[in-house]
Write a structure and sequence with these properties.
13% strand, 15 helices, seven-stranded mixed beta sheet, 439 residues, alpha/beta, 15 strands
Length: 439
Amino acid sequence: TNGSTTTTTTTTQRCINAGGGGGGVDQSLNPRVANLNESKTVALTDLARTLRERGEDVIGLAAGEPDFETPEVCAKAGVKAIENGKTKYSPNQGTVPLREAVCEKLKRENGVEYTPSEIVISNGAKQSVTQAVLTCCGPGDEVIVPAPYWVSYPEMVTLSGAKKVILKTNIKSNFLITPEQLEKAITPKSRMLILCSPSNPSGAVYSKETLQKICEIVTKHPRLLVLWDEIYEHIIYAPNEHVSVASFPDMRERTIVVNGFSKSFAMTGWRLGYSAAPEHFSKAFNMLQSQLTSGPSSIAQEAALAGYVELGNKGGAPVETMRKKFQERRDYVMERLRKIDGIEIETPGGAFYAFPDVTKLCGGEKGGFVEGFGPVKGSDEMCRYLLQEARVALVPGSAFGVDECIRISYAASDETLEKALDRITEALDPKKFKRSGSW
């Protein structure tokens, strides 16, 4: 967007011109790093935590983190690994037993066959995505990124030197790109299409029919790869079903599947993810990882292995219990948000986020207005207002490339969600908050 371009240009100039400070030390940075934007989700989560540590009553609904404990079988396997001395360096690519378990999982649940040599275990799915983008994309390439997007996708493209091509969606399309939209965006320079389903931040799920049409378009272009992020695959609500892009005809050889244990197994702090891709690419990911971090945690791998082997299909009872609870919370949040005048929202098919459109509240040329606060224009101002007035930390849609919306995580207790939505409802009361175009 124009706003982000201005921000990054300013950042770059500031870093390059910083050579005069620091007692004569040249403080300039690599322009690709200087051009990166800070993750707003991380920043707002940290801000809410800091405010709470100061004793302020702030509710944080910004983090994309399950509020459940890691399944007991996984936690015990991690403790056992420590007690049994499995605390040494792991093989760079990950342990063979875990890579074999990943292969079995992908075959059983997703209908795609891989060998252990095609699996690379990393320190979180974020590392897996980063390695895929840095390995496959570079200057002169274009990477197609549908918006809303996970905040890190565009920044990874920037770091690679490739050009990001943003495909904007909206609430009318349920925040999903259409095959026609994709076809128009592809050029001879197109190298990668990044798709996430269920989506962060919208919770939207691509249907099998839509994916089939997208794959038919992709296979017409030999240079075009698909990075398929399915980190939320087990947090999905009927009638939606998760289908892997790699399972479609002629797609396995051009798809990089990324998944992990943070969301489905509530293992965010264990930091473990993986990629599955043809061996030519996996070898390159493995080589890059060897120069960045080396192998992932030996302890976390034992915990993850127990999850895949002992809990069985789709994480068994612990994951299903968590999924059902998220669905209950989703339904509650939808009910509450739809009662607020000016909010529009589609029911998310997966993940644990609500992504309401707040255009009628703070869109347009002037935005909304609150006496004592002033104009509230766009998602950044809306989130700043709700943090200041309601003491609820949310994430502005601008972080995801869609300024018309805000993201609310419902990965929180029922009591916390009720309290947060009471505060939001009060802060957006029409008697207090003047809607866009009404003042």
